[in-house]
Design a protein that fits this description.
It contains four helices and no strands. The protein has helices at residues 4-10, 19-55, 63-79, 85-105. Helix 3 (63-79) packs antiparallel against helix 4. Bound molecules: ligand ISJ. The site of ligand ISJ has 12 residues, from helix 2, helix 3 and helix 4. Its EC number is 5.4.99.5.
Length: 113
């Protein structure tokens, strides 16, 4: 069983963390907010792509484009000093969600029984 004292040791209150940790976390807060804004913008643009694909009767997925983009982003990551495997962890999930939404826009998502 976890007592109250155990919990407070494992999850210190914000005003009890060392100053340096608090500063790092403030940076993380700002960076995470910026990432969410960038993601929102990416999804706004990919929705336009999905609408265009529906109008033009183009397939929702373009595997070649995804592969080229992943290669490009891994090169950028390496230049930025970031382990490129991070790109492989995040972007395929994003692209998969975009494809799912494109399919949904076409009206061929899963049908109820
Ligand atoms: C956005 C597109 O649609 C899909 C989603 C992609 C993405 O999220 O980057 C890339 C290719 C497609 O599978 C596109 O074709 O450009």
């Amino acid at each position: 069983m976890v007592s109250d004292s155990d919990v407070s040791e494992k999850a210190p209150l914000c005003d009890q963390v060392p100053r340096e940790l608090g500063e790092y976390r403030a940076s993380i807060d700002n960076l995470d907010a910026a990432l969410v804004h960038l993601l929102a913008e990416r999804f706004r643009v990919t929705r336009k792509v999905g609408e265009l694909k529906r109008q033009e009767a183009l397939p929702p997925a373009d595997e070649g484009r995804e592969e080229r983009q992943l290669l490009r982003l891994k090169e950028i990551a390496t230049t930025a000093g970031l382990d490129p495997t991070v790109v492989d962890l995040i972007f395929p999930a994003l692209m998969s969600e975009v494809r799912r939404r494109h399919q949904e826009l076409r009206g061929d998502g899963p049908r109820p029984l």
